[in-house]
Amino acid sequence: MLTTVTDAWHTLRPPEGDKHGPLSPLLLTLTVVTGLVDAFSYLVLGHVFVANMTGNVVFLAFALAGAKGFSLGASVLALVAFALGAAVAGRVVVHLGPRRGRVLAVSTAGEAVLAAVAAVIAWAVTDIGVSAWRFALIALLASGTGIQNGTARKLAVPDLTTTVLTLTITGTAFESRLGGGANSRLGRRGLSIFAMFAGAMVGTLLVLHVHVALPLLVAVVLLVPVAAAAARLSRSKPAWDLAP
User: Fold this and answer.
1) 151 falls within a domain
2) What is the pTM of this model?
3) φ and ψ at 17, to 5 degrees?
4) Residue 150 belongs to what domain range?
5) 3-state SS of 11-25?
């Protein structure tokens, strides 16, 4: 138990000399953003995710098979926009080189702009789920999470992919004492799972009880300081800033 708590604490407050520096808590924040935007997209835009592309592949099959409530166009658009966002992240990496802090700052700033535009649309437009604006929101948000996921891939911080939990959950169970392991990185993995859960829970509560646009506004409020912190903390070119 003590090892798990220590692992979680070091994820939230990395010790001096940690090879990933402050990237772990920043990526945890982006994981919360994933929960927020996916709660918004699924509940407001219909049966479509803007971050969980595994779900969209399954929804695409449902739509092709004629299941009611699933949109072929929405699923395809989300997949394409996400892929384009990941490609943009790749270009950012090529342009900025091995500087992980700068890559995170620039990509997160771009995602924040896309989320802010989506929030304005969601606030101003009524009946979003049945209007053409639905597809604009899917494109904006899926592009942003594609950028986020591509960036997380470049940063290569273990168990913090920000948009996918399947491998994290698998690793947790596989390396548990029940699975014959030593519960390695259980604290970090648990925080990653909880971060997405918390984002989805807060996003759902805001959509159902306050205003549909608020999950996106909260996402922007989280994205902006992540971008600012990544830029500020990497300014002196610390050791963690260079890609491993």
Assistant:
1) yes
2) 0.93
3) 90, 0
4) 2-10+21-227
5) HHCCCCCCCCCCHHH
Q: How far apart are CA 145 and CA 194, in angstroms?
A: 19
Q: Who contacts 9 (Cβ-Cβ below 8 Å, separation ≥6)? A: 187
CB atoms closer than 10 angstroms to residue 87: 14
Give, in order, the Cα–Cα distances in Å from 162 to each of 139, 150, 218. 19, 10, 17
Residue pair 40/203 in contact by the 8 Å Cβ criterion: yes
Which of left, alpha, beta for 53 (phi over 0: left; psi -120 to 50: alpha)? alpha
C-alpha 44 chain-centroid distance: 18
Q: What is the pLDDT along the chain (244 residues), one digit of tens a residue?
A: 667 788 888 888 988 888 999 999 999 999 999 999 999 999 999 999 999 999 999 999 999 999 998 999 999 999 999 999 999 999 999 988 889 999 999 999 999 999 999 999 999 998 887 778 999 999 999 999 999 999 999 998 988 888 877 777 776 677 656 655 555 677 888 899 999 999 999 999 999 999 999 999 999 999 999 999 999 999 988 999 886 6
For residue 233, being part of any structural domain is answered with no
Instruction: Tell me phi and psi for residue 242, to 5 degrees.
Output: -80, 135
Residue 240 lies in a domain: no
Nearest of 62, 56, 94 to residue 76 by alpha carbon: 56
The answer to whether the CB of 150 falls within 8 A of the CB of 91 is no
Q: What is the CATH number of the domain that holds 155?
A: 1.20.1250
Domains contained in the chain, number: 1
